[in-house]
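Escalated from tier 1: uridine-diphosphate-N-acetylglucosamine holo job.
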Amino acid sequence: MTSNSTPTGNTHGSGLNAVVKATGGIPLNGRVPVQGSKNIALHLYAAALLADAPVVLAGAPDILDTDVCARILTATGTPARFWGGRLSITPATALTPVIDPLLGGRVRTTAVLAAAVLARAGQVTFPAPGGDAFCQRRIDRHLAAMRAAGAEVTGDGHLIRAVCARGGVRPFHVDVATPYGPSLGATVTAMLLAARANGTSLITNPSIEPEVTETARFLAQLGITVAFDGTGLYVAGSDRTGGGTFAVAADRIEAATLIMAAAATGGRVQLDGVTTSALPEGLLQTLGAAGVHLADEPSGLVASVPGDLQAVRVATGPHPGLPTDTAPQLAALLTQARGGSAVDERVYPRRDTHAAGLRRFGADVHATGTTVHVRGPASLRAAHVEGGDIRAVTALLIAALAAHGTSTIAGMYHLRRGYGSLPAKLAALGADITIHDVEAA
Ligand SMILES: CC(=O)N[C@H]1[C@@H](OP(=O)(O)OP(=O)(O)OC[C@H]2O[C@@H](n3ccc(=O)[nH]c3=O)[C@H](O)[C@@H]2O)O[C@H](CO)[C@@H](O)[C@@H]1O
Ligand SMILES: C=C(OP(=O)(O)O)C(=O)O
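Tier 2 regenerated the structure:
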């Protein structure tokens, strides 16, 4: 193997088999902006398929998932173009009711995108969802919503077809509870189906994640009323919608990643474009218990570690609980905390691909059942590792920043799916971090 160093600038500047090289031991210090939320944007890209007028999603993150979704939309006949942090979407004149099987297999919102096409065209063919492969991505509640909306759903598990009778989707009631809590994705799927049904639909046990509430705000801008009460979520559909510009909210998971990276190095960072109100209660409580201090200052959110980091025993859960998407980074942070920590994963039972990677740095980490146990503080040493999914890669990056010596982390494809410029932001905070293109010798 040979390697060429490239600037850390935007991570898009180098190939997908590039590696990140980081020399740890430097407390992160400084100020960086937070990108638009990957997970909110993914749902807005699907919702934009419902618009009858052009839509601009301002602050869309510059990530691979944005590119893949823009190509999925364009392939349906709905031109979508990403430029300068904005995704511009022009309504289809003739909608092709297919989610491209290859592209659809690369993002996890495939069924949500399909629901929007079904709502508009009365039929759709789509593949099983993609996204991180740390566990099976079940979609039975999505299919239940499609059936409740009047579609006949058939398929072999790889390619699914949903077809409504003449007249298209109809108002419905669906329950989106799963054994793991409310399904975020199925809540949005049901909302998008209901948005085009002629009447009011009811979604019981809905998720209340910002992905849902931001999609509801966007639908309201299109002219579709979404109301919550103790029974569920009511959507009053319409066969005619508007468009306009909508701002993608800040990425609370990128914010959490930067906070944990700073805390693991004993640093202090200011994050522009986000306040503590954007962080779920479960995350705020966990960071507070671990000894991370967060303050809203006029210019942004400031994170620091006034004393020693402390062990915590926590569980992930549906919003406003501790987000599953922060558990790997939290495990990396806890390698620097005093005592025995436990992070129980209750949304995806075996989301623990980061545990083995963290051990390569000399961390005392092991997974038992659904729980990742961490004992600290550990004096980490540099390692050469590969992350297998988005947040696993960032957990390994955090470990590298806290370790003695120079580490290499592979898994750039996963990093780029979710982070537009994380290595550049870490470098701006003082980290010794570079990206190296790796070529076969
Ligand atoms: C509630 C929750 O924390 N959702 C997370 C989930 O959203 P995402 O929308 O991808 O997944 P869901 O919320 O639908 O899934 C939550 C759980 O329910 C199961 N399930 C889901 C749909 C279904 O029809 N049947 C079923 O059994 C899933 O397998 C999973 O164990 O992953 C995203 C990426 O990590 C996170 O950003 C979300 O915060
Ligand atoms: C798992 C995640 O995303 P995806 O489902 O898109 O892989 C994530 O955002 O942490």
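The pocket of uridine-diphosphate-N-acetylglucosamine (ligand 1) is lined by residues 39, 108, 138-142, 178, 180-181, 183-186, 207, 209, 318, 323-325, 347-348 (CB under 6 Å).
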